[in-house]
Amino acid sequence: MRTLNQIDLSGKKVLLRADFDVPIGNHSQTRPVESPQVLPVEILESFRIRKQKPTVDFLLNNGATAVAIAHIKAINSFKAMISELENILGREIELIDNLGELGSRLSNLKPGKLYLLDNVRNWSGEEKNDELFAKTLSTGFDLYINNAFAVCHRKHASVSAVAKFLPSYPGFLIEEETAQLDKLITMPKDGKIFVMGGAKASTKVPVIKNFIGKTRNILLGGVIANDILKARGVDIGLSIADENVAKLLEGLDIGHKSLIMPVDFNIFEKKIYDIGPNTIRDYVNTIGAAEIIIWNGPVGLYEDPRFDAGTNSIAKAIANSRAFKTIGGGDTIAAVDKLGLLDKFDFVSTGGGAMLEFLAGNRLPGLEALGYYK
Question: For the chain, which ranges sit under pLDDT 50?
Fold first, then answer.
């Protein structure tokens, strides 16, 4: 991939794919909500936004004008978030409400200023990867920069199709993510472990397949552990599991010696909500002996204090480990950040699904558009 350092940015109009999709609430609440009614909203976890700052600063400090495009799932508009975004990025941000306004404003953009097009997923052409929509987005710009690794696995217009119409470059975050995650795949097997949990088992199976033989142990929790236990004939009661487990796990050696399963659980109303004390002890011991640790997905319902012992214990054990340690996924980051341990990790990926797709060895459309793959 070409890099930002190769570009003369002075006077350039840059279309910047940023990542502002973060958990939010209103100022009277302490937990995420889907549609907060009180304005302005509160950003509950700002890691992804903070990771945009080095690229934004580089662009604007080198004479470019940047119009950021991003999405937010929890609300329809960024209007309620602007003041918080400004505080985190340390920049005044001018919101552009719609595409028509974007076209008319391009000739009057001020160098060194940051603009933000409102929620790009409000337009149907975005998720359809519509080329006409992408061309409309790109018209009048000199460069396109993708700095949103977390959406690189999406074949969306602002991630994929837009690169057909502009010279395209990765932001600093994309460069960091690809370098670090590629290193995790190629690092020696000895001493390397993967801790895997969470609720989306379908995204975990391809990673397990790719890492069997590339890591010493894969410690499992969450729904993927339930699925494998069910496939092995274990009664998991009313616990959450995928309906067609046989199809989901097809091609995976569920008896492989590197797959480490929970031996006990925290069960409530016939449902597994967390790993049990013996499993916690075993996992913590394995973590303590590791030299390279990758973690994606809580091992229990960490949001509930009754079921957070497994996730919290693993977070503390990894944070205190001398290993090279990496985490990714929104829930994993939130759980670690809640404990104030985020700065103890050597690398924190902004990607959840994108991180897993990359580690599974799949081609990501956003990276393909930037020329990452030879």
Answer: 28-38
